[in-house]
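Form 7-S
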Amino acid sequence: MGQKGMEAFKYLLYNPETGEVLTRTPLSWLKIIVFYIVYYCFLAGFWAACLMIFFLTLPTAEQGPKWTLDSSRIGSNPGVGLRPRPTDQRIDSQMFFLKESCSNMTSSEGGEGDLNIDYAVRMKNNIEKYYGTQDGVEELQLCEENILRNPGEPACKFDFEELGACKDYPYGFVNQGEDTHINPCIFLKLNKIYDWQPTPILPENLEDDEYNDMTDELKEIIKNAEDPNQIWFDCEGRFAADKEALDMTFFPATQGIPIKYFPFQGGRYEPPLVAVRLNLNEKTTTGQLIHVQCKAWFDGVEHATREKAGMVMFEVTFQKEYQAN
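Output:
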């Protein structure tokens, strides 16, 4: 007759008739314990071997990434970055909503707002983070000679004096002195690609088909440049109405970044900038949405609107008052 209740439970723990413990004999328990010990030792050994192989193939910090340039997913055609960045709330936006005349110097907390001064604060924070003095890190030095960096050679310190009227806070986002309106500065940079060495455009090649989209103004600058070893930047309105309303001043006036800031080799690095000051004029209509596209130019550049390769697009509108959230 079968056991019931507590007696059945006692037989589950230990069966005096068969000597089973939890339905298994001691020999059966020994076999299964030995099996799993061997099995998990093998798994641990396999995992340790894989980890060792991974670390043996991992390059050192001095060697840099194993896969670079065209061997990597990033490639060798850098995108163009835009500063100041948008707020965290609008992280995917490239639109600047600005009050056309503003003298307010009180920002939102952390600059995370839509006031004119908030744009300036975000730019200031970016400069302090990437260009300021860092504890325990050796300060970069200005480079006189405009040549590519050799392997292992420190990067060059970026010279903010090149940015002229756009080098100082609040970067034109707030009326200065007797100005009756703002003249904001938008900053352009190239996205970092490890060990990318740009090849400057030869002036004699400017009539080639690949440079048909370059503005005549930039072509003249390149032809007359004292030092053509630059990566050039060009901005224009995307549509006819945008081109009519857009008046810009570049800093530096050469519209270029010297090649001495390249290649990026890891470690301390100050991304070089080109500033574009947007000048309000009588053709700038209040409330008009102005579409701007900026392109980088170097030998072999590819411009792709969808991937934003070699270029960046943004919109700016000047309002009488701040827009309602």
